[in-house]
Design goal:
The protein is an alpha/beta fold. The chain has helices spanning 17-31, 42-48, 52-61, 68-84, 96-105, 118-127, 150-159, 174-183, 214-221; strands spanning 4-7, 14-15, 91-92, 109-113, 136-138, 167-171, 187-190, 206-208. InterPro entries: HAD-like_hydrolase_sf, HAD-like_sf, HAD-SF_hydro_IA, HAD_sf, PGP-like_dom2.
Length: 223
């Protein structure tokens, strides 16, 4: 029975923080506020991988109390700006695509379960030339629910034609850890995203320090 390896996208397969932060800064300009986020600051990088509203709240919090109406007003301008420049700074983490290719070569199914809107996730994969490497892509708006709701994961698994007892989720945040726990499947968290080695505190079934080690990590979890 084949394995199914399901990846998060932002912060797991690719470092998207630079383009996300640029989009947030463009939204602040659109809103006419002086807030700015800095792609060289680790906390700002980490916040970028938590979503558009998290970035808007962070920037606005540096000016004073956060008005959720302003956050809502900035969300669509952020998405629009991001879509215009979705892959200017984004790169896959070293070895990520080679690892995916090796999985496919051995007959594993490979999918993406992301809280990025599906259209933007598909656009990003296309821009980076990686669309054909994945059997399924399920985004934040594909279903009425998203991670950490386990149904988001299960739908990705179904689209990969995978099996519940032969699957694993690879991610980088507490959201991925909670998703895997809710689904009752193993979770591997990467340590090269902005959160770094601190993800060990989330007690995943395994840590991944380098994509060169992916096969050995998976073999220990799903022989």
């Amino acid at each position: 029975m084949k394995r199914c390896v399901i990846f998060d996208l932002d912060g797991t397969l690719a470092d998207t923080s630079g383009d996300l932060l640029a989009a947030a800064n463009a939204a602040f300009v659109d809103l006419g506020v002086a807030a700015r986020l800095d792609p060289s600051v680790p906390h700002d990088q980490a916040t970028a991988l938590k979503g558009g509203r998290a970035m808007l709240r962070l920037g606005l919090s540096r000016l004073g109390p956060v008005d959720e109406d302003v956050v809502d007003a900035g969300y669509q301008p952020l998405l629009t700006a991001y879509g215009r420049n979705i892959a200017r700074h984004t790169t896959f983490y070293p070895g990520a695509l080679d690892a995916v290719r090796r999985l496919r070569a051995r007959g594993d199914a490979v999918g993406i379960c992301t809280n990025k809107p599906e259209g933007l996730a598909a656009q990003l994969l296309s821009a980076l030339g990686a669309t054909d490497l994945f059997d399924a892509l399920v985004g934040a708006d594909t279903l009425p629910v998203r991670k950490p709701d386990p149904e988001h994961f299960w739908e990705t698994l179904r689209r990969c034609d995978g099996h519940r007892d032969r699957t694993v989720l690879i991610g980088d945040t507490v959201t991925d850890r909670k998703t895997a726990a809710a689904a009752g499947i193993p979770c591997v968290l990467v340590t090269f995203a902005p959160a770094g080695a601190s993800v060990a505190d989330l007690s995943p079934e395994a840590l991944l320090h380098d994509y060169a080690d992916l096969e050995s990590v998976l073999e220990a979890l799903i022989p």
